[in-house]
Amino acid sequence: MSNWRYPGPITEEDPILILDTGTLALTENPLPEVVGAQLAKIKAPPGINPRIWDEIHNYRYPSKRKLQCCLFWTSNTKKNSAKTYINAANSLLTDHNLILDICPENAKKTTERTIEFNELVDISHYEELRNLVHRNHRHNGRIPIIFCRFAGSLGGESHDTGMTINIEHWLPFILINDDKEIMDNLTLLHEIGHASNCEHVNSGNNAAVHNFMDYPPPKRVGILKKQVIKLARSYFAREA
Q1: Given pLDDT bands bounded at 50, 70 and 90, which one contains residue 53?
Q2: Pick from 16, 34, 60: which residue ends a domain?
Q3: In this predicted structure, what is the pLDDT of residue 138?
Q4: Which of 96, 129, 142, 145 could form a disulfide with 174 if both were Cys (CB 3.0 to 4.6 A apart)?
Q5: d(CA 226, CA 228)
Q6: Distance of alpha carbon 195 from its chain centroid, rounded?
Q7: Which range of residues forms the domain containing residue 123?
């Protein structure tokens, strides 16, 4: 572990120093008291100070935050993996004092939550889908998540299971490929991360920084402190 580096730039909020040797040390200011119960599901590897490790990997946001999501389905979707994705996301989020707040609560495709769209989605459809959701359903303060069928390079034999869309005049929203699944079921959480301005953190074989924004999968476990903070401060996050 001698080549391990802290995942991201050092800021005044970070309670560690990275030494030239690649080791970790406490700064002059002691770490703050841990807020809430530390479940510490991810253990520190040999050679890393467990207290610092917990601050990075097992950080709990000071107040409970709900990430508000509003689910939709295009009329041509054939199955519903929403509940599986939600359960997988919450299995990681709850350790950090975060939780998904889903509308509808049962995460089921209904007539009210279905938008009339029967094509395979490509880049030319992004604005149309967003407008359809806006016209037909109220979702103030929530991020729209649209389960649909991807076309061409977005589906078929590609590995794309979801996308976060940023287009002019709209806040980020998410498309989930109804035809594709992935072993860890973290597609939804991964895209919520992108919508919260979390970037890919490629850990490779370095187990010290495996996290839900790892790409490509499958080693997407855990949420780093700076990612927790971004999720908790996203435009669709509210006090629980």
Answers
A1: confident
A2: 60
A3: 77
A4: 145
A5: 5
A6: 8
A7: 65-239
